[in-house]
Every structure is written in structure tokens, then in C-alpha cells.
Amino acid sequence: LVRAGIIEPPSWYAAASHVGPSPAPMRARKPKEIVFEEDPLIRAYYAREPTAAFDAIDARTGAKTHYVRSFALRQLEVMRERKLNEREALEVVKSERDQERERFARAAKSGAPLDDADRVLTAPGDGNDTQSVLEKIQASEEEAWMANVEDVKAKLES
Fold this sequence. Notes:
Helix content is about 50%, strand content about 0%. By secondary structure, it is mainly alpha-helical. It is flat.
């Protein structure tokens, strides 16, 4: 842009044009991979339940720990406290998760649903047979679409 005369040369341009780039390429060591103790347990969770990978993770500062990480941390805690191996601790935590799921389902069925913020080992809405607002909208749209398809089919057949 300076050579084409489009802009005026900045005050540092003359000095910078007399000094070429460094002949030696810059090299930096590759940083070590950061691995947390619960990482293998989290990977194992996603391997067992791949659909959990589609659940949103809130990365904001101070956000609640994601339920998959909470599950892995609880499994790690059980392994340490009870001196259990990974598989035995998994069964204990699965049982705790199932109890939490049942507690939320019972509360929802009784008409007094618990706050999803109180969940630790289950995903928001997990265990609720009731539909969310979005699911209700999607269901009504699906019904309207199918009714429209049936109307078009009837018109084409007649």
C-alpha cells in the first residue's frame, strides 16, 4: 500500500525496510499435553454413551460442572475411598445415577419437579417423561406436517 502510494508511510517504515527478517526460523518446543486424572474416565463414559457428547457444555467461568465430568469425579472418589477398581466404582456410581434419575422422575410425576440445577450425575431433563416446551412445539409441528401430507395425498388420489 505504501509502495503503491495509497497510504503515507508510517514513521517506523524506513527503519523497518532496512532490516530484513531473521534468517533463523523461530522454533518453540511443543507444550506438554495437560491430562487430568479423570480424563480416562470421561473418555470411557463417552465410549459407553456416545450420545452424551451432543449435550452442551457450559464453559463460562463459575458454570456448573458438566454431568459427565461429575460422574467421572464421583467414580474417582469412590475408587479412592472404597479402594475399588474402575469397573466396581463404575457400578456404584451408575447405581447412584439411577437413583438420582428416579428421584427426579418421581418428583416430575408428582407435579412438583425438582430444579435441574440440583442434578449432579444426570443430564438436565433426564428421567422426565414430560416434554420440554421445545419438544411440545416440535411434536405439534410434526402433527401439522403429517396432517398436511395426508391432505395432499388425498387430493392427489382424487
